[in-house]
Design goal:
heterodimer, A: alpha+beta, 22 helices, about 15% strand, B: alpha+beta, five-stranded antiparallel sheet, two-stranded antiparallel sheet, 7 helices
């Protein structure tokens, strides 16, 4: 018997284009699914030690998740927010609900301390005992409808439920030491929290449970004995919305090694599955089942934004083409997944290609899921510059990562039309028009391609054998670019292969790339730099979480 | 003030940028300040002291010339960030020789870079300035002495033994005054708001209250 040939990972120059990154889909390696799988496998228990909410919907509640070594408590503060103060923007100052994830089980003194701070969000302070800080606003449309219906003893209209998809949307979930919270190092050694964003995903998972119980409480206040609880089937379809602005986009540029690890792990998973010579009948059946359920999810994906409307049209065409292809291609033939993805490269849009790439991973948890352990960035030494590297090698690294960028005229207005900056009010990351607004002096280093080109041009004037340490002493302004060039040795997928300051850049592509790894679905851009998504739609609530339902919940059951 | 180390790093990086360091060195400033705080040294005070001395200076005048012994800066005083980066970038030199550096501002800021060099050469590194001996293997740190605003000379060599090492800290506790200095420098990196940026910059677009 010959060994299974290993099919190579796809090339960074193919994957790291913004259009493709803006077409990524959730997969087995999404942070939400990694969390729910682990919690089910480890038999996490959940409790609600506090639910002290008054008739106006104001008060506090605590939801605790008990893992094998640590407990984590969502502390929720519910507020009575006047309608005119509700905004998803970072510049908002009040919210319908505010949250923190406490490391352990809080006592009354903790709750009182946090009651003074969490509702203030950025204007308050939390401590090393807290892991996240978050807030959410109601979906005004759906909230009123559901309270009204339940209070009258009726279930809400499924059409309205599906149209919105969530009762509240989070507008920020901060972790990693922000506003005084514990640094990532505090939790990174815990197996359950080593995968990135697990505390944030746990926060949102528990928020969803709280929101369901809050709306049932409000319906009961309104309807008294007439009120009923939300049908569990409808409740399950509800996720938590998330409204994400431009602020998230710089993250994937500012964390090249971390982002590389996410992409590389997914590419490795895809390569492993493509390398499978023979798919069993069970594998094939699983694939078709998931494909059908994924189609149902896509059918329920709505957007009013022209860009996404167009992408969805392509995706639906892609799915039709895939159906035709699968009618003729026998997946029992050798290397079925490689063959299918090879066909998709030619026949489908990026949306379809990336959806299919995620779907073929589904039958192969044993090949894929363990890769989650490689998604964190534990390599703190990577930041250090190797000063002994000859300039020749630095130039080669830049050529490899940014060969495409070296040909661009970076002085042409259209190629540097935009600049990223942070605003004085609310410290909000923004993107502006370099030539129309007074922002160039405040530009953030979010144009790695331009900066690499600038470094490359100056490096060309130096002797190839000189150590880069000499160059950097004379040209500290290129230190940032040289560091990134050297990082590419361990992070081949760390750089976006597109212009991030051109007049046609779409920040929503960057947002989607990151959010897809969270496991988000139903991306709904509200502008070129703002997107709404849904999280945990279909997921079992804590009391129902089991090994049977902990993973594939992201795909709706077709019977629904 | 009780701060997370992430807050320290982020603000230190912005503050250095606000004092006109290029981004690559501002990043080093953020990491170095964090490293000091996590080793129970008031890195925030050291950086604040440095930025007050060097604010908007021409960096080349504060940069070392490694061809001299001791290293000398054209302007007379070394910047510990530029100099520290130069040491980290030349860590291999310490295999064969010690490095002597002339007058330098905030020598404590140099220590994290010496720690970086120690990790690269896989050896302990000892840094001495008047009345002070500092020893680090990259992970652990021992300081016997003081951290003044300037010293006339520093020696760095491979070797030494770490005794009585500093306690590790997961929080930073700068004084309010120190933190305010860093925040003041950091604030310079924020663009004044214009109506246009308020409306379009973050791109909320259509209604967000529905």
């Amino acid at each position: 018997m010959s060994a299974t040939p290993h099919i190579a990972r796809r090339d960074p120059s193919q994957i790291m284009r913004l259009k493709r990154l803006g077409s990524l889909h959730q997969s087995r390696l999404s942070f939400m699914r990694i969390l729910t799988r682990r919690m089910a496998q480890e038999g996490w228990q959940f409790s609600r030690p506090v639910f002290d909410i008054d008739d106006a919907g104001v008060g506090r509640a605590v939801y605790t998740a008990h893992g094998p070594t640590h407990s984590y408590s969502l502390i929720a503060f519910a507020h009575d927010l006047p309608d005119d103060q509700r905004s998803d923007r970072v510049i908002a100052q009040a919210w319908d609900a505010t949250f923190t994830l406490f490391d352990g089980i809080p006592d009354v003194a903790d709750l009182d301390r946090l009651a003074q701070n969490v509702p203030l969000q950025e204007a308050g302070r939390i401590s090393e005992r807290e892991l996240t800080l978050a807030r959410a606003n109601r979906s005004v449309r759906l909230w009123a409808h559901v309270v009204e219906a339940l209070a009258k003893g009726q279930q809400p209209d499924p059409v309205q439920i599906d149209k919105v998809g969530y009762l509240m949307r989070t507008t920020a979930v901060y972790g990693s030491g922000k506003f005084g919270a514990a640094d990532r190092e505090v939790i990174a050694d815990r197996p359950a929290m080593h995968v990135p964003f697990q505390v944030e995903m746990l926060t949102v998972y528990l928020i969803r449970h709280f929101v369901r119980e809050l709306i049932e409480h409000m319906a009961h206040v309104k309807g008294g004995a007439t009120a009923i609880r939300l049908d569990p089937v409808i409740a399950r379809r509800l996720g938590i919305g998330n409204s994400t602005g431009l602020g998230m986009a710089p993250y994937i540029i500012n964390h090249p090694v971390l982002f590389n690890n996410w992409i590389m792990v997914r590419e490795e998973a895809i390569a492993r599955v493509r390398s499978i010579k023979t798919a069993t009948q069970q594998d094939i059946a699983t694939f078709f089942d998931i494909l059908g359920r994924s189609n149902a999810s896509v059918a329920n994906w709505h957007s009013q934004h022209p860009i996404q409307i167009d992408k969805l049209a392509h995706l639906r065409n892609d799915l039709a083409a895939l159906e035709s292809r699968l009618a003729t291609q026998d997946l029992s033939d050798p290397y079925p997944w490689d063959s299918l993805l090879g066909w998709a490269d030619e026949a489908l849009s990026e949306e379809g290609q990336e959806l299919l790439a995620s779907l073929i991973l589904e039958p192969y948890g044993h090949l894929v899921d363990g890769l989650a352990a490689c998604m964190a960035d534990d390599n703190t030494d990577a930041f250090r510059i190797d000063g002994a590297m000859p300039i020749r090698d630095v130039r080669k690294l830049i050529e490899t990562s940014f060969g495409w960028a070296l040909k661009i005229d970076w002085d042409a207005k259209k190629n540097c039309a935009r600049a990223w900056y942070v605003s004085q009010e609310k410290l909000e990351p923004r993107m502006g028009e370099r030539f129309d607004e007074p922002i160039a002096d405040y530009e953030q280093p979010l144009a790695p391609a331009r900066d690499a080109t600038a470094a490359y041009t100056v490096l060309a004037k130096w002797d190839n054998d000189t150590q880069v340490a000499e160059f950097l002493l004379r040209h500290p302004e290129h230190r940032h670019a040289v560091r990134r060039a050297q990082l590419s040795r361990i992070a081949p997928y760390g750089e976006i292969c597109d212009n991030t300051i051109g007049d046609d850049v779409l920040p929503i592509d960057m947002l989607r790339a990151k959010l897809s790894f969270f496991g988000a679905t139903h991306f709904d851009p509200r502008s070129d730099r703002w997107v709404r998504i849904c999280m945990y739609a279909g997921a079992p609530y804590p009391d129902d979480l089991s090994q049977a339902n902990c993973d594939l919940w992201v795909y709706p059951e077709r019977a629904q | 003030m009780i701060l997370s180390l992430n807050e320290v790093e982020t603000t230190a990086k912005k503050a250095a940028r606000g004092a006109r360091y290029p981004w690559g060195l501002a990043e080093e400033a953020g990491k170095a300040t964090r490293w000091l705080c996590s080793h129970d040294v008031d890195g925030c005070a050291a950086l604040a002291g440095l930025l007050d001395q060097i604010d908007r200076a021409t960096l080349a005048e504060w940069a070392p010339d490694p061809r001299h012994d001791p290293w000398a800066a054209d302007g007379g005083t070394h910047c510990p960030l530029v100099t520290g980066a130069a040491i980290s970038d030349r860590a291999h030199m310490l295999h064969s020789q010690s490095i002597r550096i002339g007058k330098i501002a905030e020598p404590a800021m140099l220590v994290p870079f010496a720690a970086s060099a120690a990790r690269q050469i896989n050896a302990t590194v000892t840094i001495t300035w008047p009345d002070t001996v500092v020893c680090t293997d990259g992970d652990n740190l021992a300081i016997d002495g003081i951290c003044p605003a300037q010293v006339t000379q520093i020696d760095i060599r491979a070797g030494g033994t770490i005794t009585d090492q500093n306690r590790r800290q997961s929080r930073a506790t700068p004084t309010a005054d120190t933190w305010q200095i860093l925040c003041r420098f950091a604030h310079r990196t924020y663009a004044p708001a214009t109506e246009e940026s308020r409306q379009k910059g973050a791109g909320a677009g259509v209604s967000d209250n529905d």
